[in-house]
Amino acid sequence: MAGHSKWANIKHKKAAQDAKRGRIFTRLIKEITVAARLGGGDINSNPRLRLAIDKAFEQNMPKDNVERAIKRGSGDLEGVNYEEIRYEGYGIGGAAVLVDCMTDNRIRTVADVRHAFAKYGGNLGTDGSVAFMFKHCGQLLFTPGTDENALMEAALEAGAEDVVDNGDDGIEVLTDPYEFIGVKAALEKAGFKAEFSEVTMKPTSESVLTGDDAARMQKMLDALENIDDVQEVYTTAVIDG
User: Fold this and answer.
1) What is the strand order of the sheet 230-235 is part of?
2) What is the Cα–Cα distance from 217 to 209, expressed in whole angstroms?
């Protein structure tokens, strides 16, 4: 993969997240609430909840906010009942897009998502139309120059599935989504702190977009990200430029 791609896209995503910290709190509270509702409020037996709480604390969310979200999800406090929905579609040049939502109004959400796709030249697809082009996994990215052999040894010992050297894009460690927290903790203990890490839907192939196509695709992704009911947006597109 060319050096311009993964690192630039990850940095753009990180910058966009930092700029929307208030929205991140809202999304994390939804995720904690739903995770607690589906799997219970005990982080030791609910890896999804543990991951959501770790993310919340990484974003410096107050502990009281986290505890209230757990109680709402567990039924100890009243709250909105969110429904999880995934929309699939196509962007510029046929690039695949997954949009994960949590909503209390499915009709509003699908209208907003469809509008964002259509406005910038994409279109909403059917269930299963692009999901097969992504893999649910944990992903940790380490800066170029990281000692690959030492990282690989530590990662595989910690239970990682794969270690990929992307050259100028750094080194990527991939894990089972439910082993992500343990692998991340083991690597940090071994002295390897990831520049960026998350449980994600990783594209199994990518398409590089340049010029006007890249600009239109970025606008579409930003429009989707800005929908209140959207939790995450994943794409096979690599924006170059």
Assistant:
1) 123-124, 83-90, 96-103, 230-235
2) 8
Number of domains the chain is built from: 1
Report residue 111 as tokens.
Answer: 């209208």
Residue-range definition of the domain harbouring residue 18: 6-74
What CATH number corresponds to the domain at position 20? Answer: 1.10.10.200
Is position 35 within any domain? yes
Q: Is residue 142 part of a domain?
A: no
pLDDT tens digits, 117-167: 999 999 999 999 999 999 999 999 998 889 999 999 999 999 999 999 888
CA-to-CA separations, 111 to 28, 102, 126, 233, in angstroms, rounded: 23, 14, 15, 16
- SS3 category, 87: strand
Q: What angle do CA 32, 142, 176 make, to 5 degrees?
A: 50
Does 73 or 119 have the greater pLDDT score?
119
Rounded to an integer, what distance in angstroms lies between the CA atom of residue 171 and that of residue 224? 29
Helix (H, G, I), strand (E, B) or coil at 61: coil
Q: How far is CA 152 from the centre of its chain?
A: 23
- Asked if 82 and 231 touch (Cβ cutoff 8 Å), the reply is no
- Name the residue among 197, 195, 170, 171 with its Cα closest to residue 184: 197
Whether 194 is in a domain gets the answer no
Query: What token pair was written down for 64?
Result: 């009281």
In a domain, 67, yes or no: yes
Please say whether the dihedral angle defined by the alpha carbons of residues 35, 100, 116 and 220, taken in this order, is positive or negative: positive
Block residue for tokens 């502990």: 63
In this structure, which amino acid lies at residue 187?
Answer: L
